[in-house]
Amino acid sequence: MKKILTAALMLAISIGAMAQSGTNSPYSQFGLGTLASEATGFNKGMNGLAYGFHERNQINHQNPASYSALDSLSFIFDAGVSLQLTQFEENGKKVNAKNGSIEYIVGAFRAWRHVGVSFGVMPISNIGYKYSNTANINAFPNPHTKETTYSNTFNGEGGLRQVYLGAAWEPVKGLSLGANIAYMWGTLERSVTNTYSDVYVNTIAKKYTSDVKSYKADFGLQYTQRLSKKDELTLGLTYALGHKLNGTANVDVMSTNSQTNVKDTTKFAIDKALELPHSFGVGVMYSHNNQLKVGFDYELQQWKKLQFPEFSINNNVSKYQLVDGLFTDRHRFTLGGDYCKSGKNHNLFHKMHYRAGVSYTTPYVKINGQDGPREISASLGLGIPVVNRYNNRSMLNISAEWVNRSATGLIKENSFRINVGLTFNERWFAKFKVD
Questions:
Q1: Contact 402, 416 (CB under 8 A)
Q2: Which of 56, 77, 76, 78 lies closest to 66 in space, CA to CA?
């Protein structure tokens, strides 16, 4: 009981620690921000491959049906962090930025025969950027006169988080059903400030804020068919419920007189302006002798029909309203695998897991009427058993990930990320005989 309370305390502490942003990308100013991966340590080594994986000693949050495969004698606790270096390139200019964040903290155990339970806290989206640009007001400046310039400063922070409870049940051998029910919350903050070199021109600032408190529901199914004594194939299906989010989207438009410093603020608000899309996932995994596992995933997020609040001024009339055409459906394709020569061999290199994966992802936002950046990524990972006098079941998961994001005429991003996850696997429920 003390260990369960300790796990709950660590989970509560992590909720506050995860409030920091996990991105520096200017693309996070659009939509709900940069969508976060919900992969845990072992998935990240395969670039997020998950829908067909069901491991007895790892927590696969992306398909809750996998929980029924958990070891009946173990309590699993998994935590992960990441370090990231990103290079931004535009018009031949390059800038580097780095950041780190707590990725996830999750736990799981077998509750009853054929029933597994998981809980944890994970990110949904991240916002984190700050940049500015300066230009002349006149398109054709006079080199003999002092021209008025203007500067736009863009700043944003926040994101969405979730704390979830999930369960899976295996009603018949080979078939598992599962669900995650989560409470999601977060604040999305963005601001744009226009300043001018001419003191007679007012400063204009727009501050956008949205406070979200809502729920999230994900469902999963896995079916495993044995092909031979050593080979099996697993089909995985997932569905995430799309719905309106509680909370209000606000924008404060502030005009400041540069001479008198008097501020005039106009407020606009839209109730239940944000929404989650319906999402569907399908994956297959082939396993040979429980040593070689290769899989493919496809995910569809139906953003295209969703509206999003936008501030505009037409004929000197200011409007803040929900508009169409700011999103597009998001598609993600992932291929990856895991190889471990023999879990029974005492050679450490034979007990290690070697992982790799590649992905291609289309954008979910439109920028100035065109599709946002598409994403190409690849990862390599290792699962290293933790062996000591007290424990030989835990695992250190380390992976390196490269991500390229680009779109015609927009900023190019190249990120290199190191993911580190530690899976504690304790035999809490074992019964010992005393002679």
A1: yes
A2: 56
Residue type, 233: L
Q: Say if strands 292-301 and 279-288 run parallel, antiparallel, or are unpaired.
A: antiparallel
Residue pLDDT tens, the chain, 435 long: 444 444 544 554 555 555 455 688 999 999 999 999 999 999 999 999 999 999 888 999 999 999 999 987 778 999 999 999 999 998 888 999 998 888 999 999 999 889 999 999 999 999 999 988 876 666 555 555 566 677 889 999 999 999 999 999 999 999 999 999 999 999 999 999 887 766 556 788 999 999 999 999 999 999 999 999 999 999 999 999 999 998 899 999 988 776 666 678 899 999 999 999 999 999 999 999 999 999 999 999 999 999 999 999 888 888 999 999 999 999 999 999 999 987 566 778 888 999 999 999 999 999 999 999 999 999 999 999 987 655 567 899 999 999 999 998 899 999 999 999 999 887 655 554 544
Q: Which of 118, 42, 106, 108 is nearest to 74 (CA)?
A: 108
SS percent in the chain: helix, strand, coil, step 5: 10, 60, 30
Confirm if 259 and 292 have CB atoms less than 8 A apart.
no
Nearest-angstrom CA–CA distance, 251 and 267: 6
d(CA 79, CA 393): 16
72 CB-near residues (< 8 Å, 6+ apart): 110, 113, 429
- Count other Cβ atoms within 10 Å, centred on residue 23: 26
Q: E strands within 45-74?
A: none
- As given in the structure block, the two tokens for residue 352 are 């290690």
Instruction: Report the distance separating Cα 351 and Cα 339, nearest Å.
Output: 10
Q: Distance between CA 414 and CA 405 in Å, rounded? A: 7
DSSP state letter for 69: G
C-alpha R_g of the chain = 25
DSSP E strands, 173-259: 175-196, 203-226, 231-240, 243-244, 248-256
CA distance 304 to 324: 8
Work out the burial of residue 128: count CB atoms within 10 Å of its CB; fewer than 13 is exposed, 13-18 middle, 19 or more buried: buried
Question: What's the CA gap between 179 and 61, in Å, rounded?
Answer: 10
pTM of the entire predicted model: 0.89
State the SS3 of 204-220: EEEEEEEEEEEEEEEEE
**Widest CA span in the chain:** 100
